Amino acid sequence: MDAMTKMWVSFIGIGLMALSAVVITLARSRTKGVVRFVLSLVAFGMLIVGCFCGFISII
User: Angle at CA 55, nearest 5°, toward 11 and 1?
Assistant: First the structure.
């Protein structure tokens, strides 16, 4: 993988982690019940994918 590809993968990872923080904040402060659970699950998935992209960009 060349340097430019690693750069874009790391940007995607950073973006996903930041977006997951925003989604979990909104889910916890403005929603209740099943919607809160679904948004939290989506945010957790985005966090995992973002971390995975970060690890790939390091390798």
Answer: 75
